[in-house]
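Response to reviewer comment R2.3. The reviewers asked that we include at least one raw input/output pair. We reproduce the pair for Cytochrome b561 domain-containing protein here without editing.
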Amino acid sequence: MYHHFLGYALIAVISANIFQGISILRPQNQTWKWAYIGLLGLLLCITLAFEIYTWIKFVNSRKTKKDKPPEGPTGKPQEGPTTAPNSSQPPDEK
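Raw output as returned:
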């Protein structure tokens, strides 16, 4: 989670730095600035779409885990409580 938010903060700082660089150059034509704003908007839309998809997938996987019965050591669902044989009693002789 830490790396996730650190990455987003780093992208924000980098974007601000590029805006400062464009303003320092003082271009006669503002095409670079508007092109960069358009690119950032496109990347923002893509990022939002992926985040929404990831959270929907995460929430759905948690719901399906709650509905599934617990698995035993073989990977198959357990049918009931398993108990070890009582070793304090002698075995039945026939």
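The chain has a mean pLDDT of 81. The CA atoms of residues 35 and 94 lie 90 Å apart. Further pairs are available on request from the corresponding author.
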